[in-house]
Predict the structure.
Amino acid sequence: MAKKKEETKEVKETKTKKETKKTNEHLVEVRIEGKEWEAALDKAFAKKQKTVKVDGFRPGKVPRSVFEKKFGKEALYLEAADEVVPEAYMKAMADSKLEPIVQPDVNLKDLSADGVTYEFKITTKPEVVIKKYKGLGIKPEKVEVTDEEIDHEIGHLLERYTELVAKDGKVEDGNVAIIDFEGFDNGVAFPGGKGENYSLEIGSHTFIPGFEEQVIGMKVGEEKDLHVTFPEDYGAKELAGKEVVFKVKVNEIKEKKARELDEDFFEDLAIDDVHDEKSLREHMKEHIAAEKEVDVENKYVDELLEAVAKNVEVDIPEALVQQEVDRLMGRFEEQMRMQGISLEVYYQFSGTDEKALRSQMETEAFKNVLYRTMLDEIAVLEKVEVTEEEIKKETEELAERYQMKKDEFLKQFGGEEFIKYDLEVRKTIDLLKEYNK
């Protein structure tokens, strides 16, 4: 039977390119048919042939005619459709001449013996209109250090150097109990409810209500069943409001030993030119001032960007916000991992879940994307440029700071493009500060 005329085309021309409600979101349709579709069906059958079982035929030897008679040609459509997604995407990019800033959404619109039609939602860089970014009247605060602040920091320092000393007797409020624990719901252990040699400070309220209170009074080596009830609004719905049992064993009890500003303390402190209370206060004053300068600078820049944002017209793509949420989630997970806590355990004992945590991060993510978008536009308006020499110098300094070889540093931190972009942002922020003195 002769093939239809249109099937002689390898890839049908893109027929649809239209805007969504947001001007930076574009819908592009691509159809794959003819020889390309037949080739995709051939590849789909080759994959199916390796695993399909048909009586009377060895594995991998089932003829295509037998396969299609038994399972229908339709059994190959989805496999073939997956096969041509990359080709369809490249076609969408070539025909639309769009530059996506995030991975496009893909929607399968039509699938049949004749071919497949995909719709790609392509998000491009949003148009930005900045009405004003000079003379905003934002000034940095002056840095001052009070005696009360010095006293407060020295108190923190003494607390930080507080020694944890093993003690006999029973667990008391303020002690650190080193415990093994495992949670059970109706006798069945639940995920994220187990820990070994966990340092639990009694009174920190890091565990669910009622847990720490029942550890008080336990002795080293003692095992005890703790009956606690998860809050009704607990993040893990399968545990919300439930009464569970934690089997707990105390391995060790430690208590805090307060420190004083004596000779032993200054030896442990081991700070150059700090040997008594007077020199410590001078050192702390410099330390506090340096920290305050960083805080004041960060606050100043944030206030500048917030003021610019009030004079900006831009439609931030939701896909870009969610991409930033993914980045923040990854950073948070890494921070938890460095503390020896998995996200699953964090969700269990914080009474939240992934959806709630992502929701909490959306405000920060939106602000980050908005500020980056603004700064990118100001960099264009001001013709901000970064030289190869500046990139080289910055790379060498950062590699030395992180004690890494230059090539290794670039590989782990995103390459020279990352360095270049970071320098562009910093130069643009410096311009903003200069324009708003």
